[in-house]
Design goal:
Length: 102
């Protein structure tokens, strides 16, 4: 939420909500380092419950563009799954080829 690209896209209220929840969980982590795995997972779920709707709203406001914000550096190796052949490559029908074996 401190990223320059996000500052203009996220409301102050949402930013405060995320920061407050993260600070609360960081404080809990500092004082509960010997907690059980389930307790850590519970804290993670709480953070996700607060942050996921806000992140979803950000993606929707950006036009629903999928993928990494700002794009993946160097593109997606091998192209996107289900997106056909990478640029510059042509691959017949795009499916597996079956050879006859005697």
């Amino acid at each position: 939420v401190e990223d320059e690209k996000l500052k203009e896209k996220i409301s102050e209220e949402d930013k405060k909500t995320i920061i407050d929840k993260c600070n609360q969980v960081i404080s809990w982590l500092d004082s509960n380092q010997l907690a059980e795995k389930e307790e850590f997972e519970h804290q993670q779920k709480e953070v996700e419950a607060v942050c996921n709707p806000i992140v979803t709203k950000l993606y929707q406001a950006a036009g629903g563009a999928g993928g990494m914000p700002g794009g993946m550096p160097g593109g997606m190796p091998g192209g996107m799954p289900g997106g056909g052949a990478p640029a510059g490559e042509s691959g017949g029908s795009g499916g597996p080829t079956i050879e006859e074996v005697d």
